Input
Amino acid sequence: MISSAPHEGKSRPRPLRIAYLLEEGPYAHLQLDAIFAECYSRWGGRFSLIAPCSQGRIAARYWDWLEAYDPDIVYAYAPLASDEEERIHGRLQPSLLEKHQVREQGEPDLGWFRPSYGVSPLSSLSTIFRVARHWGYGPGREPAGFIDAWYTEEPSRFLADNFGTYHSSFHTSGFPADARQAAQLLTIVAKDKWENPQYGLPRDLNVIHDEMEALAKFCAKETSSLAQAATRFASKLDVHHNRFSYSFNLVVGESFPDRLLFWNARLLNPHWQGASLCGLRVDLEQTRDPNFFLLLTRLINNFNHVNDGTGGQYRLTVRSTSVALVELEDLRERLQNARCFSMSRAEFIDSADEVVPPKQELENASILRTDGPGLTVRPDWLEFQWDGKVAQPPASIPDHLSDCPPRQSFAMGCWATDYLLELDGPSPRTGVKNWWLLPKGWRMAGSFKASFPPDGMNLNYLPRSTLGGELTLFERLERPVRSITVPAPAEALQHALVRDGFYSRRGQPENRATPPAKVADMQPSNEARYLMGILGMIGGLDRAKSLILHPYWIEEFKRLGATPILPREKVQPVINKLKELAPTVPTYVLGDEDDRIALGHLIVKAGRSLKTPQHFVKHKALVERWDIHRKAFWERHGQERSSNSEFDWDAHERAAVDECLVEMRARQMLFQGTQWLCPQCHHRNWVGLSEMRPTLICEICRLQDSAPISNDWQFRANEFLVEALRDHSVLSLLWVLDKQKSNARASFFYDGPTWFYDDDGLRPRPVSETDLMMVIDGKTIICEVKSSWAGLKPSDIDDVVKLSLQLRPDRAIIAVMDTGKKQEKRLASAEEALKEEGIAFELMTLDNYPLQDDPYFV
Output
């Protein structure tokens, strides 16, 4: 049922997050060249993560970092094993897992390895208009300049790795005319080529003839770089690493691990460093050139603003994975002698893997923006409201694009928008809103159907969920989200387990990898309708604690036969009879018709001795037993009411049972009336409250008799309620849902008993089932629920393990609404088997999740 109250929503635009996978090999340096150039062209691109691979697998230490980084796109240069692809989808849930297609024509160059995502991301130069408006650049406030190298020149890797060049990143040296008031290019062209008319160089180029001269202008802050533009106004994962976050990293060496170390170490600098360089990579031979060494010293002095955040002297660490510590110390001393002002040290790095932050730091990391100083920007989240099942959010556009000219080419790219939508369901706790926090392992983002303008270009990026559980959609200025159709929890779970992998069974492009479906089909089981019916009757899960799960009401419903648990004394006659027959009939074969008949007669005979449950309970008895229950409660808790209190607490507590009865009567859980015995035929007639008349008529003999003047009202249970609690374990299901809901902090939704099929539901019987599926704060759970230990068979435990390995939830629960613990060895074996697969296991009983007992019905 959809609530009529308005729901809340939030949206937050951000840059695309792209992670690259590559393996050290003959083309590794060209691949890094292409990655660096592309990252410098993209808004937020300098904060991209590069993870090394080996033999088709991602380096183990990088998995935690990849999960915390939470990429929208995983771009693989390295070949991946098929199970590694499934692992990427299961743990990272990218919108796109793209395998690089090499253009094998001509000599290997940058073009061979340039990344392609189908649609261009938002440009890093989309930021220049805000910078020009608010800051200007340089001493005379002239437009910002960006270093470029004309196509006739080969920029050094020092320039390309640390600063970037316009031509390498944007595949052109043409600069849009409508951007020239905000920025310009400082183009490196050799003097002989500039003077040679055969090259046909445009005369309006802002030319500089030497790379060292261009770097000197940068050092004097007369020009900027793409490396800085790629960070402005972008969000990043703010994660700390004591070895790398609090010093300027000067990486020495040209090996693959050195370049990897340099790039990834810059991701560890605090967000407040903004567009600062925070690190450089140099070749050792370069530092022996006196002119270059002087320039390097000036760069460090002018751009090192890194310390531990508490003030004090700036810090510098000279590092390498390929240069010996002795030579690193020598370089550090030479820098110090050249009056490099930073407090410095040297460190040899055994492996580029050492840059990976500790797991605890990754768990504590958060997404923060790198806004420039002195700018007033709108909050991260834009709030809105929506009704029904369709949200119509306002346009969510990166704030800096408001300064761009209309239809400016640098503003035409794609960005990601995270959406947080309120969930229509039971709140985790009082006063806390319930949000859609989507899980990672079960991909349900596709169940949220977004609509876009009909003439907007299709991005072919699938919706995804972030590590925080937000829904991520991909937008452009000409393709904003118009509306989002929000699914019901059951629809979201159906999509995650069945529909998401539907097309993987029908083929896919070689360069795209999508995960298979976890099951072919799923349908609500017969038990589901009873759970849904009772939840509708009691007004939702929030009322279950007061109307059904209170220990007092559990006992009262037992009197009315609404319990799945037979007392030991009622089962004992059957046990005794079976014991008597054991010497003569050692076994009953259920597959044999004669044995089934014999066993059926035995059970029916023993059942004749069972006492029939009460048809009704009297109001007076209810009140008396409530008084006894309250007295026992206060005796257990050792508290006494103050005799000086003016408020009559006892009367207040005593009235709670009547208040609850009124609600149960209104919800038709109990029917109020009276039973009278016909004096003629002795038939017991039931007369409901609304049917009371001065004269009562017997249903059988039609005798008329006067209604009683005084009467102790009686209450009869709804037959559907009795059947649900007695035969379909609804009480246990409500207990599990109520207790797990209280564990949630911000998000809770679920689906009831479910059957799973392995061939699109065409088989006559399901192959497996689960009692509950829950998503709590973005973590997925399946649950097997039993009313007592007597109902838990060894095969039930094995089935939970088997289904967990198929569905891959974050946690598997076996819930027994009983005390104590049995089948300990088998449960321990199940826990160990699931732990090896990264699935948590929990045994839930009344010992660790007791029923809440109060002298009120809250």
Q: What stands out?
A: The chain has a mean pLDDT of 87. The CA atoms of residues 439 and 778 lie 4 Å apart. The radius of gyration is 36 Å. The chain is about 30% helix and 20% strand.
